[in-house]
Amino acid sequence: MATDMQEPTMSTDTQDLVSVTFTHHGQPHTFQFPTDATISDLSDDIADSLSIPPSNQKIMVSKIGLLKPPFKDPNLPITSIADKKIILMGSTADEASSIAEAAEHTSRRAIRRSRPMQKVQAYKSHDWKKEQEESQYTFLTLRPLSYLPNPSKSLQFLQRLKDDAGIKAAMRKHKFTVPLLTEMNPVEHTQSNHEGTTRTLGLNRNAGEVIELRLRTDAYDGYRDYKTIRKTLCHELAHNVHGPHDRNFWDLCKQIEKEVEGADWRSSGKTVGNDEVYDGNGEEDVDDHGGWTGGEFVLGASSARGAESTGNADTGGMSRREILARAAEERMKRLREQQQEGGGGQSSGSS
């Protein structure tokens, strides 16, 4: 008696999965996902399996570049990167904390060793009110970017800003408390277009919740001028009170700059020995167009072009920097209008 032989049914579960392999600290890891999974799903699994929070994740994908949460395209299909070389950079929360603590300890020790020995003064009184205010109105946390070279040096730079006599005096006077002062990655805040290259020097997020400063040069191999960065910090502190670059903002910004320089004897125009007098000359021209999170301090590629773009607008006695700011805002407005109209036409050489 003939019987029909049927092949056993096979599970199709494995056929509906895609494997993603990446390396972390030299060790390969392979995760499997449904074919409709996204880059966000990969980030969640990394957080669950390797205890690396999304804020610490940096995913380098060949031919695509650096991806990190929050992703520009959180719905990027996992299938689009499954066949590419993937490297995960990032530390667990415990590792990041220990690295930051060690770097801060090293920085403080280096600062103590670099300070000249001071003579002990008998019966020296403490200004307890001042010390209490300095501990309250300050930067509560300093955080360098641990994935960039020499994070301890960046931490030392941030510590110098925090300990700056002028910055401390201004923050006490205006009662500024900033939860986090950190550095920004230069490559993520540099944009080029037909008008040239702009470099964001500072960001103020949510009216003083986080302040980011551009400490490094574009090649990561050096650090920018301290006084320029300090002036950028004054600018961002003014955004704690005023978001847009209106008259109130510029008045406060100039006031903070004067207070910072006035409280720091090294910038007050006096000399000690052969030390140079800092009079503000030689600073970088700044093309500042504000920002969505409260304020951006942007270094423009051509200040002369910015000055020309003001046209016949009434300057109302504004400073050169404020004129450049208005010019940049006008350029951004025209660019948005061109994009809404379909991007027709090219900008003239003086725009």
From TrEMBL:
Where composition is biased (Gly residues), the residues are: 341-351
Q: Where is the composition biased (Basic and acidic residues)?
A: 319-339
Comp. bias regions, Acidic residues: 276-287
Q: Which residues form the WLM domain?
A: 130-333
Query: Coiled-coil intervals in this record?
Result: none
The organism's superkingdom is given as Eukaryota
Q: Its Gene Ontology molecular function terms?
A: proteasome binding
**Where in this protein does the record put region Disordered?**
264-351
**PANTHER family attached to this UniProt entry:** DNA-DEPENDENT METALLOPROTEASE WSS1 HOMOLOG 2, UBIQUITIN AND WLM DOMAIN-CONTAINING METALLOPROTEASE SPCC1442.07C
Protein known as: WLM-domain-containing protein
- Output the lineage of the source organism: Eukaryota, Fungi, Dikarya, Ascomycota, Pezizomycotina
